[in-house]
Structure formats: structure tokens, C-alpha cells
């Protein structure tokens, strides 16, 4: 059971009051009262005079007891409050070191109250910052890696043309155009990824049915599927329910998933799209034949710039951010994404709450 911070400070104040009251009670019962009884019994002093002497004595001892009680309560309050607030001081110091770039800082979670919860949240925030910093560094490296190859190729062609090592020809300009299109594609993917990261702030949701949208998107890919002689199986009847979603962003999700399935399914393979419904969500899965993906890959395929091919080659032409965009857009809708790899088949799914 958690001892709430409010009750801790309340207990401190109550303890102060009890200490003062206890000191006063001791003073009255064991000092002033005994003094009054002694005067009345042994000296036969008149009650009025004895009463006045009693009041004087009570006031004297009351002042003494109050000062003593307040002093003890003050020391106790300082000690107890400092123990309660110690984790906050540690967090302030750690926050300063984290702000300076030291992400190794951790805070001990003292107790099970609000401060303990804050310390645990602080440590989770630090872990998230480490992860974000690692992603940032990896993204810079990956972007540089993706840009270097087409830029190097363009530079090589241009230098060869300038030095007249290579004569200008249609083939040369076509190669330059191809490398330029690769750069444009990469920049567009980066822009789409940035928009997906910010999707939570600009969603325009309305009730839509997933099934017709899936069918329309699959229809747009029919020519591409036919070129590779891919068989497409569609079972999305369970998705004929309204979900609150941004149609444009959901269409991008479906496009990216179908593009991924088309790109990595070998010629003559099979692509299957199935929708399932549960009481709280609709799940849509995209399965395709693929013999080249390692079984450890499901943990990585949603990472930025990750490619399914072990060699990370560009043979398939992807930049490795399509599934990352899917993940960002679905999570912006409050949904989930996942993947499963079995022998010769890959399945990627997403779910949206009803």
C-alpha cells in the first residue's frame, strides 16, 4: 500500500501538534497540579490565592513546555521532511547532469509514494532519451550512407564527362537521371517520415470503413502484381465496420504495406490480405512469400533504414523507412503494429481500436 506524500506531510504536522500537547499535559499533571495540591494541603492557603498561584505556575510551565515541545517538533519536522525531500534533491542534481549530456544518471526510487513514482518515471525518461539519442545517431549515419552512393555515382559521371574520359551519351544521362531519382525518392521518404512522426498533432479523423479502402488500394497495385505474376488473396469482410481514422494517412499505411509485399515477394509468389475483428479492435494482416528474411528480423523491420535483405543491398530499391512510417501512423491512431516470420513467409499486421 502506498503512503501518499500528502499523508506524510499531514503526519508530520500531526506529530508536531501531539508533541506540543504532550509536553503541556506533562507540565500540567506532573508539575503545576502537584504544586497546587501541596500548597492547599500543607500550608492551608486560601483557595483564591492558591488558584492564582496555580494559574501563574501553569502559565510558567506552559510557556516552558510549549518552547520545549516546539523545539523538539521543529527538529523532528526538519529531519523527517529532509528524508522525504531527499529524492527530489537527487533528481534535481541528476537532471542537471542529464541536461549536460550525461545519460548514465539514475535515481534511486525511495519508497512507494508519489516521489518514488516520480523517480521511476525519471529513470524511464532517461532510458527513452538514451534510445532517442541512439536513434538520432543511427539516423544520421544511415542518411549519410544512403546519400553517399548516388552522390558518388553522380560525381563520378560528371568528373568523367568533364575530363572527357566518357563521351556524353544517352546512356550516361539516363544513369545520371536514375541516380537523381534515387536521391529524390530518399528525400521524399524522409519528408514522409517526418510527417508521420508529427502525425499525432494533425490527424483529421472521421468514421471510415477499412474494407473498401483496402480493396481500392489493392486494385491500384494490380498491374504491379501482374508484372511479377503474384497471386493475391483478399479476405476483408470483417473490416466492414467504422473506425475513427485519417483516411489519407491510413491510405498511406496500406500503400506502404502493399508496396513492401510487392517488393519482397518473389516472382510467382502469393500475397494475402486478411482482416479479423475482436470486440475492441480490427486487425489487418499482410502476408507474402519471402525466403530471404531471417527469423530475427521481426524485431528490426520497423527500425529506420532497416532492410530485410541480409546484405542490405539496394536491389529492391527501397530506402528502409516505409514500415517505420506505417508504425508511426498506426500508433498515432492509437493502434499497434507487429510482424511474424515463419518458414518462407512474412506477415505484417496492424490493429486499430473500434
What does this molecule look like?
The protein has a 5-stranded mixed β-sheet. A two-stranded antiparallel sheet has the order 1-3. The longest helix is centred in the N-terminal third of the chain and has 53 residues, at 47-99. A hairpin with a 2-residue loop joins strand 6 and strand 7 (345-353). The chain has 354 residues and is α+β, with helices and mostly antiparallel strands. Helix 7 packs antiparallel against helix 8. It is elongated and about 130 Å long. The chain starts with a helix and ends with a strand. Residues 309-317 have low confidence and may be disordered. It has helices spanning 5-42, 47-99, 114-162, 170-197, 210-220, 222-227, 247-264, 322-332; strands spanning 206-209, 231-235, 242-245, 270-277, 281-289, 336-342, 345-353.
Please specify the SSE layout and strand pairing:
Layout: H1 5-42, H2 47-99, H3 114-162, H4 170-197, E1 206-209, H5 210-220, H6 222-227, E2 231-235, E3 242-245, H7 247-264, E4 270-277, E5 281-289, H8 322-332, E6 336-342, E7 345-353
Parallel strand pairs: 2-4
Antiparallel strand pairs: 1-3, 4-5, 5-7, 6-7
Helix pairs in contact: 1-2, 2-3, 3-4, 4-8, 5-7, 7-8
